[in-house]
Amino acid sequence: MRSVSVVVPNHNRDITKIKEALPTWVEFIEVNLGLERSKQRNIGIEQANGKYILYLDSDQIPSQGLIEECWNLGEMGFTAIYIPEVITTKGFFGYLRNWERQFYTATPIDCVRFIRKDACPFFDESMSGPEDADHDRRVKGLRTTTTNVVYHADNETFLSYLKKKAYYTKSMKKFDKKWPNDKCLNFWWRCFGVFFEKGKWKKVLQRPDLFICLMGLIALRGVIYITKR
Q1: How far apart are CA 202 and CA 21, in angstroms?
Q2: Which residues of 174-213 are buried (b: 16+ CB within 10 A; e: fewer)?
Q3: pLDDT by residue for the chain (229 residues), tens digit each?
Q4: Which of 193, 197, 191, 194 is nearest to 219 (CA)?
Q5: What is the pLDDT of residues 155-175, one digit of tens each?
Q6: Are 87 and 97 in contact (CB under 8 A)?
Q7: Is the dihedral of CA 67, 72, 74, 75 positive or negative?
Q8: Cβ-contact 116, 180 below 8 angstroms
Q9: What torsion do the CA atoms of 100, 106, 110, 112 make, to the nearest 10 degrees?
Q10: 50, 27 Cβ separation under 8 angstroms
């Protein structure tokens, strides 16, 4: 019998579309208690009865066939699974962020979202933002990546995006201390290497205009990181 628990921390957002996208056989757990995301995820993990856990944010919608594919991969022996993310926010800023996101799939910048429950640690509740990366580092076992995607409709504007990054940066000292040699903390890899490794340089050459814009955005995030951490 297939057994998957989908955990969604929420802050009073309408998540009807998520429910509609889920197969009828999954266990759906919404946690809407006004707490930090990491705390609400942990409550969901505690409540989950499934053999596997898929955690989504309240603005992420699984594509048709995603959970079925994750289940099948789990039954093949994979403990943790990366899911490619497609940012659907409209406008150039959303387009640029989606283009950037495609470079990160299954890299240390990414994080596994589908995990066998007996291998799923709790999230570090002292972090806000880096808890995803911290959680990913503590998951053990064989990993793979799906062909199906999750759609991310965050509708972030340029200003709200920067505000969120500034908030997340406040927890980076804790992540730095916990994972001092983490690849994400390597300036050259994080800002340049990830875009050129494993043949991804071809995508950069196809859209140098987007890459230039992205470098500007990364530089701005760097300033926020330095001044707010």
Answers
A1: 34
A2: bbeebbeebebeeeebbeeebbeeeeeeeeeeeeeebbeb
A3: 789 999 999 999 999 999 999 999 999 999 999 999 999 999 999 999 999 999 999 999 999 999 999 999 999 999 999 999 999 999 999 999 999 999 999 999 999 999 999 999 999 999 988 999 999 999 999 999 999 999 999 999 999 999 888 888 888 889 999 999 999 999 999 999 999 999 999 999 999 999 999 999 999 998 888 876 6
A4: 191
A5: 999 999 998 888 888 888 899
A6: yes
A7: positive
A8: no
A9: 140
A10: yes
CA–CA distance, 114 with 9 (Å, rounded to integer) = 15
Q: Largest Cα–Cα distance in the chain?
A: 51
Annotate the chain with three-state secondary structure.
CCCEEEEEECCCCCCHHHHHHCCCCCEEEEECCCCCHHHHHHHHHHHCCCCEEEECCCCEEECCCHHHHHHHHHHCCCCEEECCEEECCCHHHHHHHHHHHCCCCCCCCCCCCEEEHHHCCCCCCCCCCCHHHHHHHHCCCCEEECCCCEEECCCCCHHHHHHHHHHHHCCHHHHHHHCCCCHHHCHHHHHHHHHHHHHCHHHHHHCHHHHHHHHHHHHHHHHHHHHHC
Q: Which residue has the tokens 């802050």?
A: 11
Which amino acid is residue 81, in one-letter code? I
Residue 122 tokens, joined: 């709790």
pTM score: 0.94
